[in-house]
Amino acid sequence: MYQQIYKKLISPIHENIFKRSKFLNYLGFLEESQWWPRDKLLNFQWKELQKLLKHSYEQTPYWCDIFKKLKIKPEDIKNYSDFQKLPIIEKQDIRKNKKSMVARNYAGKTFTKSTSGSTGMPLELDYTSDSYDWRMAVSKRGYSWAGCEDGKKQAYFWGVSLNQESVWKKYKEAIYQTVLRQKYINCYDFTEEKMRFTLDDLNKFKPEIIIGYVNPLYNFAKYIKNLGSIKFKPKAVIAAAEKLYQAQRETINNEFDCPVFNTYGSREFMLIASECPEHKGLHVNIENLFVEIIKEDGSAAGPGETGDIVITDLHNYGMPFIRYRIGDMAVASDKQCPCGRKLPLLEDVVGRTLDIIKTPDGRFVPGEFFARLFREFGEIKQFQVIQNQLETVKIKIIKEREISPEKIEFIRKGLSEVLGKNVLVDMEFVETIPLTKAGKYRVTVSNLPAEPILK
Ligand SMILES: [Zn+2]
User: Fold this and answer.
1) How many whole angstroms from 281 Cα to the centroid of ligand 1?
2) Fewer C-beta neighbours within 10 Å, C or N terminus of the chain?
3) Does CATH place domain 356-446 in 3.30.300.30?
């Protein structure tokens, strides 16, 4: 009932009159286009890409120079292999050239935001209100696949650092909670006491959809398993902002007793890909983004192959992002989803390129291994794997309760079997594990010299 009223009354007012956005038009378009045949979708995407390239060439000194150096014009780019002639840009290219990347005809008309810079260096970027509307529409559609719609009670587990809390409280909590039936839980400092309070609160609120950072959700699920009793049954949990490991998905799924929907997004582009009810991978929002998975040799990854995620934002005309290496890796897929949506899939998002643990014999150990191993020990509340040198791996552990020396030895042996005998495993028991500035928790942290695995 409330949902119907919301759809008819509140939503159009909120979005169209107060925000004067094209958001609803884009959302209407996206709700249809997701069912288009693949060819039609790709055709639309290609046309949007051509328009973007022409605009970038005409309006930004940076891209104009690149085309000139390559001795080509946007109209010479007729297919994907032509497009691959354009260089892949990195965060440092944007930091160095931001001014010449902003389009002349949008100067002074863009919004600016900065990424959190979990690699240590924040990145400032501009975007237009039109691209914001696209992003909001894409996000809304992606979340709707999990059954998350306006008017349904939603609880957000968000990681927000303390210095942002006052702003956070002022603007979001008051408005969203009352008008949009959304509850926000700040998990930056998610202590057991806070979890107890949160569970009491949610047992009364009874959210239908839970959306949140992966690790607070996972810790909360473990808290419910050990100490709490859940008195509501959400329809879905949407996992965001951090890598979702299979082991974490299983625990969240069991404790909340509902499906878990994985999503992949970033500060630069908002929602990039997300799962539908089939959970066969993440559907890429190709009406708004051109997403490539690029292997070490610069070629596109085939099905099942892993590569760097490279993104072109089709609608941010204020500061075009073309072939931007975002710093995460994904596994490519050519599967068709049984849901009937023809949006292509990513098989999985592997995680941050720079935080993959390497071994001296040249192997990469996925974070999934550590997530699975430590889940087996109820004595361990939280952990983080840090690699400062190739031959040493430090494991920070927060204990739930005492752990026997035999079990510690068992873990150490398990780790050295996987990492190799030449790797020294240093386990350290700590009280807290710091989060990034954006309130994200990193399961693995690699501090090896800043040389991306894939060039
Ligand atoms: Zn699907």
Assistant:
1) 8
2) N
3) yes
